[in-house]
Amino acid sequence: MLEVIAGEDPQTQYPEDARHWLNIYAELVAFHEDLLERLRTEAAHMQSMKHRLQDSDLASLHREIERLRERLRFWQERCLDLAGLELDENAGVLRSGTREVRLTRREMQLLAVMLRNPGKRYRPEALLSLAWRENRLAPEQLRTYIVRLRRKLAEAEVPAALETHPRQGYALVME
Questions:
Q1: Whole domain around residue 115: which residue ranges?
Q2: Fewer CB within 10 Å, N- or C-terminus of the chain?
Q3: Residue 94 lies in a domain
Q4: Which of the listed residues 25, 49, 83 is the one where a domain comes to its end?
Q5: Does residue 91 lie in a domain region?
Q6: How many CB atoms lie within 10 A of CB 34?
Q7: Contact 11/18 with Cβ under 8 angstroms?
Q8: CA separation for the pair 5, 23 (Å, rounded)
Q9: pLDDT by residue for the chain (175 residues), tens digit each?
Q10: Contacts 24+ apart (CB under 8 A), 39-42
Q11: Is there a single domain that holds both residue 20 and residue 74?
Q12: Is the full-model pTM beyond 0.90?
């Protein structure tokens, strides 16, 4: 049986509701991962904590994190579906309705990160790390990819805007 939170409607036709649920589950995953890390750190430093913290407790927390990640993936896909988008990372193609654009590997990686949490503001350093796992690229190079991605989103008539927020970063805002 699918465990959902009170008020959660997996069949919603409202994109804004889907985005809210995506953000809720993203926060729940982050909270539970932080909790797990904190428990591990404390247990390593406190012998008495090791006795209180049972393997079954950790296993239970791991299962809950995986369940939350599954719900997060569901809402990420639901957001794409409701926006009429399909992202084929293997082929490097973004489809929006009947329109299709090819993306470079870096553009695809950047878009994939931003689509995971539409509306979230990413600082340039965070995007460089999350999208490409490296900090060798300068923020100026990131701006170049942002500009190119904006053009391709417009070309595909994607119902979204790639916004710049001074001193706060970039956000992909779905319409």
A1: 103-174
A2: N
A3: no
A4: 83
A5: no
A6: 10
A7: no
A8: 13
A9: 568 999 999 999 999 999 999 999 999 999 999 999 988 887 776 665 555 666 667 889 999 999 999 999 999 999 999 999 999 989 999 999 999 999 999 999 999 999 988 889 999 999 999 998 876 888 889 999 999 999 999 999 999 999 999 989 999 998 8
A10: none
A11: yes
A12: no
